[in-house]
Amino acid sequence: MKVQKSIIFLFLSLTLFTSSKTATANSNSKPRIIITADPELDDNNSLIRFLLYSADFNIEGLVYASSQFHWKGDGKGTKFMVPGREYTKYGLNLCPCESYRWKKGERFIHEAVEAYEKVYQNLVIHNKSYPSPNYLKSKIKYGNIEFEGDFSKDTEGSNLIKKIILDTIAGPIYITAWGGQSTIARALKSIEDEFKNSKNWNIIKQKISKKVVLLPSGDQDNTYASYIKPNWPDIDYRQYKNGPNYGYGAQLSANAQNAPLLTADWMQKNISLTGALGDIYRVWGDGKQTVKDDRFDYFGLDGYTNEQLKQMGYIVWMPKQPKGSWLGEGDTGTFMNLLNNGLNAIEKDNPGGWGGRSFNPNPRTFVDPFSNDTSKVKELVISASTYNKMSEVDENEAAFPDFFSAAQNDFAARMNWTIKNNYKLANHAPIIRLLKKNELIVKPGQMINLEAIVNDPDGDAYSIKWWQFFKQKNTAQIGVSYNNSLFTTIEIPKDAKAQQKIYLVLEVADKTAISITSYKMIKITIN
Predict the structure, then answer these.
(1) Residue 91 is part of a domain; what is its CATH number?
(2) How many domains does the chain divide into?
(3) Do 228 and 366 contact (CB within 8 A), yes or no?
(4) pLDDT (tens digit, 9 = 90+) per residue, 419-436?
(5) The whole model's pTM is what?
(6) pLDDT tens-digit map of 239-271
(7) Which range marks the domain in which residue 139 is found?
(8) What b-and-e string marks burial along 6-23, b requiring 16 or more CB atoms within 10 Å of the CB?
(9) pLDDT in tens, 144-162
(10) Read out DSSP for 59-94?
(11) What is the distance between the alpha carbons of residues 407 and 427, in angstroms, rounded to a whole number?
């Protein structure tokens, strides 16, 4: 054991990690990612979309998690509750209880991978990099799912995360938290317990903090605020704002361009009636209920008014929508900036991508529900809009582009791959190649010629657009001579400030019924 620990110390101290900045600069490397999720309806839908992008990732784990909304219980009759949670509100008195909104034998991650297995042979026709179903199955683990926020013991899920954090592969490991973060907290706590008395502990901790990138949908069980943040303050905790709304009720605020992509007609035509993955994708009025008699799960019911649902005992926290229409993918934004679509949004400091713009939310402090004093526990409402409001307002921040239609069409195209066993019968993204590097160092007033080559795999016609992606309003505005040509000339303003970053995007969209968009991001630094 001592020899093994010495070896680990050596790796951690000398060779284990490179910085996140170095690793993400390598566009040829796929991001390593671990998904942790609880059995919420939108987690299921986000997982289906994620599997259609699994060719873009090195998937290291698919881990079941608990949250304040879903926990399994220990199977020993132990009753549990945290004051102020949803089961004590709305006139309800459902807990203390042995389990909360967790189906017996819950295996939604397994079911998603099994559906993926049915369409895998078609998917690899369109992209040979899709991981095998057996590989994905080997990565499925159950984490700390017994109670909300309980990270008191190791689980197979926490052990998997710990192993990946401590491995010798360089670069970041992205860990999503679609539910609570107790399994992630347990992995970190186990590492701390094992190595904190080592003389190398500060080095180990520093390198782990540089390697781990957390991608949460909020703090859904208090473990970030109560353990991870206080004990691992330097871990990159990355959330996104201003981006596409993938959440529950997206249709309620959708603009004229995006609203049609959330309707029952579009969803059924492109998503929910398309193959094995479409079969398990949740939409309004689909007749399904995850846990029998769940007072919060009325989404599958059809033919009832909101008032009738309330009279039946359901907590109607969102007005019912037409049968077959968009239900929600509230966790999709956590991984969309890691996609290989050319926007390079994986780089934290860039303006953003299909997941939104990166920000650090500075979470509020909460009392540990497993402490003796639960009198001060406050409710945590988890939603993208809540965390957007919690973020610091930057009056100089530029408006964010509307990427929803591009992302939704791309999703539809990949879903179509699952039922097409011939490459020529489906649509694929245009391929863009720049004839100059995508990182340029320039001087104020300089004129630069740029040229790109586009190949559409399907021979489709395409549109071309050059546009500046602003992060701050006061960023120097470059002049673009030919917005709609593969050859263009840009002019750097004479008053551009040294070290300022300018981001120029080449956007190419094929001219098809369900148009697919590709990008090339050019980062320009003023010298």
Answers:
(1) 3.90.245.10
(2) 2
(3) no
(4) 999 999 999 999 999 998
(5) 0.91
(6) 999 999 999 999 999 999 999 999 999 999 999
(7) 2-239
(8) eebbebbeeebbbebeeb
(9) 999 999 999 999 999 999 9
(10) EEEEEE---SS-B---SS---B--TTSGGGSTT---
(11) 14
